[in-house]
Amino acid sequence: MTAATPAADGGAPAASKGPVAGHPEINWTMLLLGFAGMVVGQFMAILDIQIVAASLPQIQAGVGASADEISWIQTAYLIPEVVMIPLSGFLSRLWGTQRLFLASCAGFVLMSIATGLSSSIDTMILFRAIQGFVGGAMIPTVFAVAFTAFPPDKRVTASVVMGLIVTLAPTVGPTLGGHLTEWLSWRWLFFINVGPGLLVLFLVGRYGNFDKGDPSLAKGFDWWGLGFMAVFLMSMQFVLEEGAKNDWFDDTHILLLSVVAAIAGPIFVWRSLTYRQPIVELRAFGNRNFLVGFIMTFIVGFALFGGTFLLPLFLGRVLHYSSSEVGTTMVVSGLAMFATAPFAGRLVRKMDARILMFGGFMLCAWGMWEARLVTETWGFWEFASVQAFRGIGVMLAMIASQQVTMATLPPHMVKNASGLVNLARNVGGAFGLAILNTSLTSNTALHMTELTSAIGQGDQAVRQMLAGMTQRFAGTIDPAASAMKAIYGILQRQATTMAFGDAFALLGVMCAGAAFVTLLAQPVKAQAGAPPSDAH
């Protein structure tokens, strides 16, 4: 057999640890090439969420969509994806990792082509939804393979690779998307998946035989559990994605789906805990380290996607940077992550992972707290400091949290647990974007009220500014109205800048709070890949 043996023995009980210690049966060429193919697929699936973000106006013009319709290009991808991510653990045990990954990648590539060829917004949304659903399986299966196919002393290295993919894909996505649209056209945002997709199909099909499926699991498949899980997750994701722009519970659809999620969620949990063969194994939450790691991964998603969302939005909305200028400014975060990854891998082998998690979250908190002082005069170097702290902190926290989360789980729980962990990161990101969007909207209005109320009609400085502006707009139809509009614009920009500072501060507080939650985890030995069977 190829790399299937280590897949079964990655965390085997003591009786079978002898062969693993020397790794004589591992075909490293097949294992590394198969894993490399899966990593490329994972990168594609995560990148595809963000690569479209910078080019929505061009897509909108290309398919004749309205402003409300075009946002569904993102939403349609994310909502079905959250269902597949936890479901992939069961499907991987049923079909085997290789068959599931190949089917996922093939469907993802075909839907990428179909989306790129779409001429209407309706067909694009349909293909995009299918793309998100089938592509969702490529994300957690890589995580499971890293903790089952690799021997204990190599799992940290595999985690470092995954950490880089998970953090870099959202960071480079908008920049890459903007350049692709400028150089070629928006359709290449989707066609670009074809080349890497074919490479993934070859590598995983040739070298990715990590385990075998168990067809007997198809008997007694929990259709009710799947239904309640899909309703719960899709309703929740829709509320998080669309709530901020629709005034939350003032919107009938948001209120209705919130109620649906509140009902379906507990029923799904009850079904998963009582059914003999559940879709998702929730008993992993009985492991304290997994529970703490799950919470940490949720907050990593909040910090990762929240930071990646806030900074480009500020650069575009307030400083009016072009996509290339945004990319140049954002590159510091990616470089910091790349530079940190090798050191993080070494540190997690030598230190208690809880210390690294604590340090990582505190560094991220420091960077975000520093950004609360952002002004309209900030340039590359001010943002470079913020991003360096955030990039280093997120990388340390992510790699350490992966070790804490998975190190003490028994091997038979790893596949399901990997789906739950990746779901935590995605939902954490969705919560983060919803909270930050709401914070920006409400705080901008609040600061605008404060600024205007602080300016009296008889204020001499304001009267002089208004007179100067009126003189400047003397050539317009209504100089006085133009001057008032210009002053309003200045105040609005200042209020928006202050709201962004509040949002950065909120992220900083969240990360600092997470740092102290890490102390609740049980100690994890420096060699985080130690057999999990002796910890419960």
Provide structural commentary.
This protein has helices at residues 4-9, 17-22, 28-50, 56-63, 67-70, 72-95, 97-117, 121-135, 138-148, 155-183, 188-191, 194-207, 223-242, 252-274, 288-317, 323-350, 353-370, 380-406, 414-453, 460-472, 479-517. With 536 residues, it is an all-alpha fold. The protein is globular. Residues 1-24 and 526-536 have low confidence and may be disordered.
Helical residues, percent: over 70%
Structural class: mainly alpha
Largest sheet: none
Number of DSSP-assigned strands: 0
* Approximate strand percentage: under 5%
What is the average per-residue confidence, as pLDDT, rounded to a whole number?
78
Order of helices and strands: HHHHHHHHHHHHHHHHHHHHH
Oligomer: single chain
Large-scale geometry = globular
Poorly predicted ranges: 1-24, 526-536
Distance between the termini: 31 Å
- Rounded to the nearest angstrom, the radius of gyration is 25 Å
Number of helices: 21
Please give the structural blueprint:
Layout: H1 4-9, H2 17-22, H3 28-50, H4 56-63, H5 67-70, H6 72-95, H7 97-117, H8 121-135, H9 138-148, H10 155-183, H11 188-191, H12 194-207, H13 223-242, H14 252-274, H15 288-317, H16 323-350, H17 353-370, H18 380-406, H19 414-453, H20 460-472, H21 479-517
Helix pairs in contact: 3-9, 3-10, 3-12, 6-7, 6-8, 6-9, 6-13, 6-19, 7-8, 7-12, 9-10, 9-19, 10-16, 10-18, 13-14, 13-19, 15-16, 15-18, 15-19, 15-21, 16-18, 17-18, 17-21, 19-21, 20-21
Question: What is the structure about, briefly put?
Answer:
The protein has 536 residues and is mostly helical. It has helices at 4-9, 17-22, 28-50, 56-63, 67-70, 72-95, 97-117, 121-135, 138-148, 155-183, 188-191, 194-207, 223-242, 252-274, 288-317, 323-350, 353-370, 380-406, 414-453, 460-472, 479-517.
